[in-house]
């Protein structure tokens, strides 16, 4: 007994209506003036870094006698680094370590507090939540210098003057980071996921640390970078 296989059928080619032009792929637009402007801005921001790198290889005399944007005849990079770390029994290394601790602890702590506060404002409703959030927004407009004397008096009464906590604690307060995390958590954390976790018996702490923090990852990185730069440059405290 023999069997025959039916011939493969070919789908008819779609016929385009008359009067329609064939679809064309649009090439990405390139703007030469915009590219030149962006390169100029990039050079403007990188120029001080290049000068700093080149100047670190020169002696004090070569800083004034040689071209600023080129190396001297006898680069002294290693000699300058050794002299910097040997100055005053290595006090520069101690300063650098303090700055790394201040910036690292402050940025991570500020990001965690901002994430917790932003998540609370975005997903929980309580009496006075709008007033409290408006107070946070109002705190953004308060200049840091206006808080100098009150902050010093507060830490003086608490006995924290000339301690690392006098730098770390004020840096943990980041109203802009809280506002940013509130806006981000409102869309990044779906309510259905929170309800499902609560139905499964998860507590609020487990939901926050196990689910919410993972969803808020990009926002956390942004707040960490903002706070890290602000604390690193905070010579005032």
Terminal CA distance reads 96 Å
Q: Regarding CATH, which class of the largest domain? A: Mainly Alpha
CATH architecture designation of the largest domain: Orthogonal Bundle
Sheet/helix structural class: mainly alpha
Q: If you compute it from the alpha carbons, what radius of gyration comes out, rounded to the nearest whole angstrom?
A: 30 Å
What is the number of domains? 2
User: What is the CATH T-level topology of the largest domain?
Assistant: MetI-like fold
Oligomer class: single chain
How many helices? The count is: 11
Write the layout of secondary structure elements.
Blueprint: H1 32-55, H2 60-65, H3 77-86, H4 91-123, H5 129-140, H6 148-158, H7 165-172, H8 175-188, H9 191-199, H10 204-215, H11 217-232
Describe what you observe in this structure:
The protein is extended. With 237 residues, it is mainly alpha-helical. The chain folds into 2 domains: 33-88, no CATH class; 90-232, Orthogonal Bundle (MetI-like fold), CATH 1.10.3720.10. The longest helix has 33 residues, at 91-123. Helix 4 packs parallel to helix 7, helix 4 (91-123) crosses helix 8 and helix 8 (175-188) packs antiparallel against helix 11 (217-232). The chain has helices at residues 32-55, 60-65, 77-86, 91-123, 129-140, 148-158, 165-172, 175-188, 191-199, 204-215, 217-232. It is 65% helix and 0% strand.
